Amino acid sequence: MKYLTEYRDGEKAIRLAEEIGRIVTKPWAIMEVCGGQTHSIIRNGIDQILPKKIEMIHGPGCPVCVTPLEMIDKALAIASRPEVIFCSFGDMLRVPGSKDDLFKIKGRGGDVRVVYSPLDAVQIARKNPDREVVFLAIGFETTAPANAMAVKVAKDQGINNFSALVSHVLVPPAIEAIMTAPGNRVNAFLAAGHVCCVTGFEEYPKLCEQHDIPIVITGFEPLDLLEGIRRTVIQLENGEAFVENAYQRVVSEAGNLAAQAVLDEVFEVTDRAWRGIGVIPRSGWRLSKAYRDFDAELKFSVSDITTCESELCRAGEVLKGTLKPNECEAFGKECTPRNPLGATMVSSEGACAAYYNYGRFVQLETSSSAL
C-alpha cells in the first residue's frame, strides 16, 4: 500500500540507523511528543537499533493519558444519570477514574455507547429528543476539528439535547512546559505530523529560538521516524535549532485553514490540567461563549469535582519523560492492561501499554534523571 509498506522497509531502516551512528558524536536526548510515535518506536524496535548515544524520551502526547482524573470523574458522574446517553470513543471506556470506569457504569445500567465519530453522537441526540446526549471530547489538535464541527452542527440544527464534555489540549504549550521544567534535559523534539497537518507549524519556530532546540515534524512509520531522528541529530551536531518538516507528503506550514476556522469559531484557549503534570497555562480549548450552552460540564454542574491519584501509579512521571514505564515498581505487577492503575497502561497510545505489549519488562541499565 502506497505510503505504508514503502515506509516499513527493514533494510532501509537498518541503513538509516547506521547513518545516524556515523553522524552522532555526543549523547542526545530526543523526545517524541506523540503516543502514536512512541508505539511505533517500541513496536518496531527503533530505540534498540539506534546508536547508544541517542536516547528516545517518551513525551505526553497520548490524549487519553493526559486527560485529567477530574475530567474522568466528571464523565462518570454524568454517565451515571438516568436521563443521559453518554457517548465516547472506545479507548476511554477503561480509563480508571477515582473508583470506577465507564465500563462499570455501563455494567450497572448506564447508557454508555461507543461511537466512531462525534457526529454519530449528534445523530443519536436527533433520534432521542427526550434524552440528554453527551459526547466526551478529548484529544490534541488532531481530533479537535471533528469535535468542534459536531457542536457547530448541533447548534445550527437546533439539537439542544446534545452537549460535549471538552478536555482538549495543545502541543506547543506542552513543549514550553517541558523545556522550562527544573532539570530539563530534552535536547530536541519530534513533532507529530497529524497535529501539524491541522494547525501547521507556524508556532514552532519561536520555541526553537527561545529554547535553542530543533523540532522535526515526522510521521509514524519506521522510516518516517528514523528520517526524523537523522535530521534531528544533524541539527544537534551542527549546533542548529530550527523547524524542519520531514513529513511533507502530509504537512504544510499553514495547515488546514478550513479546520482552523471551525476551531476558532467553536473553541477558545484556556488553562488546562494535564493528568500527572498539572495545570499548563493556555494549553487547552474550551467551548467559546457562543457555544457555552453545549458545555456538558456547565449543563450538569460537575465543575467542582476534585480527585486524588493512586499512590502506586507513576504515570505522571512517565508522561513528563522522567521515568521509563518499566522503571515503575507497579509495572507488569499491580498495573497491567487488564487491571490498569493509570491511563498510560489503558490507552492504545500509552507508553506503559507499549512497553507491556511489546515485552519491555527488563529495567533499563540507567534510569532517566528528572526533568
Tell me what you see in this structure:
The chain has 371 residues and is α/β, with parallel strands linked by helices. It folds into 2 domains: 1-309, HypD, alpha/beta domain 2 (Rossmann fold); 315-357, no CATH class. Helices cover 38% and strands 19% of the residues. The chain contains 17 helices and 11 strands. It has helices spanning 10-23, 35-43, 46-49, 63-66, 69-79, 102-107, 118-127, 144-156, 171-179, 193-199, 204-211, 222-238, 257-266, 296-299, 315-319, 343-346, 351-357; strands spanning 28-34, 54-61, 84-88, 111-114, 132-139, 162-169, 188-192, 215-218, 243-245, 267-274, 278-287. The strands form 2 sheets. A 6-stranded mixed β-sheet has the order 4-3-5-6-11-10, sandwiched between helices. A hairpin with a 3-residue loop joins strand 10 (267-274) and strand 11. The relative contact order is 0.16. Residues 364-371 have low confidence and may be disordered.
Short structural description:
This protein is α/β, with parallel strands linked by helices.
Give the CA-based shape: globular
> Count the strands?
11
CATH top level of the largest domain is: Alpha Beta
- How many H/I helical runs? 17
Q: Which spans have pLDDT < 50 for at least 5 consecutive residues?
A: 364-371
Rg from Cα: 21 Å
- Euclidean distance between termini CA atoms: 40 Å
Assigned CATH architecture of the largest domain:
3-Layer(aba) Sandwich
**Could you tell me the mean pLDDT?**
92
SS-derived structural category: alpha/beta
The proportion of residues forming helix, as a percent range, comes to 25-40%
What percentage of amino acids are in beta strands? 15-25%
Q: Quick one: CATH superfamily of the largest domain?
A: HypD, alpha/beta domain 2
CATH topology of the largest domain: Rossmann fold
